């Protein structure tokens, strides 16, 4: 039965050894462990903040794009109304001359509208592309080795967004 019940001296020295080990770990290892856990928590908090900022920037870019599209549509409608007024006035002055003139004005307005719309789309694409590239570069930098691959990915995603609209 002596195998299962240790002597008092053995128990005493085991407690002393455990107490010394506990004090050494408490003095030296525990602060290092707490410091690493705290630094990891700070890193995670910074990552969450960065993700929230990126989401806010993306939402802002989307709202800006929507505003530019609405503004281009309003300008298009205003230009079409103005062209219709001009057409009506010219028809009243001289019917034969006004028809050819109104057609020229309508064609010029359509070309101007198409050019302005194209410029607005290019400007929008450039600004959204720059913002998306900045975001994508930071997010995808670990996965893609070259800047060329990042640009190809952003252009692909922008083309997908355009086809959805």
Secondary-structure topology with pairs:
Blueprint: H1 8-93, H2 95-140, H3 147-164
Structure write-up:
This protein is mainly α. The protein folds into two domains: about 1-35; about 45-165, no CATH class. Helix content is about 90%, strand content about 0%. The chain has helices spanning about 10-95, 95-140, 145-165. Helix 1 packs antiparallel against helix 2 (about 95-140) and helix 2 (about 95-140) crosses helix 3. The chain is rod-shaped, with a radius of gyration of 36 Å.
Produce a short descriptive summary.
The chain is mostly helical. It has helices at about 10-95, 95-140, 145-165.
Index terms:
single chain, 165 residues, mainly alpha, 2 domains, 3 helices, 0% strand, rod-shaped
Q: Structural class, from secondary structure content? A: mainly alpha
Q: How many distinct helices?
A: 3
Mean pLDDT: 85
Rough outline = rod-shaped
What gap, in angstroms, lies between the N and C termini? 84 Å
The strand count comes to: 0
Q: In percent terms, what proportion of residues is strand?
A: under 5%
Helix and strand run: HHH
Determine Rg (CA atoms, Å): 36 Å
* Low-confidence runs of at least 5 consecutive residues: none
């Amino acid at each position: 039965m002596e195998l299962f019940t240790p002597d008092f001296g053995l128990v005493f020295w085991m407690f002393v050894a455990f107490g010394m080990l506990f004090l050494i770990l408490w003095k030296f290892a525990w602060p290092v462990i707490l410091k690493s856990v705290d630094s990891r928590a700070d890193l995670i908090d910074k990552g969450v903040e960065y993700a929230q900022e990126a989401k806010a920037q993306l939402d802002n870019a989307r709202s800006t794009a929507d505003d530019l599209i609405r503004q281009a549509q309003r300008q298009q409608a205003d230009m079409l109304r103005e062209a219709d007024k001009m057409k009506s006035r010219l028809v009243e002055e001289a019917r034969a001359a006004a028809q050819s003139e109104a057609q020229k004005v309508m064609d010029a307005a359509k070309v101007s509208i198409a050019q302005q719309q194209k410029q607005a789309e290019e400007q929008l694409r450039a600004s959204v592309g720059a913002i998306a590239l900045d975001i994508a570069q930071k997010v995808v930098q670990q996965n893609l080795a070259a800047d060329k691959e990042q640009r190809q990915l952003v252009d692909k995603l922008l083309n997908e967004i355009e086809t959805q609209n």
